[in-house]
Amino acid sequence: MIFRALLFVAVSIAMLAQTGSVAYSKEGIMILPKDYREWTFLSAGLNMVYGENGGSAANPRFENVFVNPAAYRQFVKSGKWPDKTTLILEIRASDSRVSINKDGRVQTNVVAIEAHVKDAAKGGWAFYGFDASGQNGKSFPKSADCYSCHEKNGSVDTTFVQFYPTLREVAKAKGTYRDSE
Question: pTM, whole model, 2 decimals?
């Protein structure tokens, strides 16, 4: 009976991690959704990340942002992020002179994965950084710069909608957009 219960919990966590719902281990570690690359793609930036995962002018990094589909649909309707919104930031190295490309840059290997999650059960918005395996996300301390930067500069509910062209106009039309510097 105990084995069946443990198996049910393990399967439930695995299914949540594949369906776009945020899931945590019993230790509070965020489990990376396996299908996040199938989520709604919001935007790609170049060299917008700071700190240890950021790039340089000579070696810029790409940042791809994905959001779980249910949160995207709700945002389009209301201009607000619902509880359980999960934004995944995938940071990739770049290279030039790949194949026929002579002057541009292309994305290469994943350097880091981070998440920005709205979860009322965990106190609201939180940031997570994933380990080298890309599976387990530990929460950043509330003193991390990302909290104050997003609070000060996020155009909608501490998120950088100003960089998501498909949602910027939605937020403006719904009256939830806040101009930032």
Answer: 0.84
Report the DSSP beta bridge partners of residue 89. 65, 114
Calculate the CA 145 to chain-centre distance.
16
Q: 50: which residues sit within 8 A by CB, 6+ positions away?
A: 145
Q: How many whole angstroms separate alpha carbon 85 and alpha carbon 75?
A: 10
What is the domain range of residue 60?
A: 2-174
* Residue pLDDT, tens place only, 113-127: 999 999 999 999 999
Which CATH number covers residue 95?
3.50.70.20
Start-end of H helices in the chain: 2-19, 69-78, 145-153, 165-174
> Cα separations (Å) of 14 from 25, 50, 83, 88, 148?
10, 32, 20, 18, 32
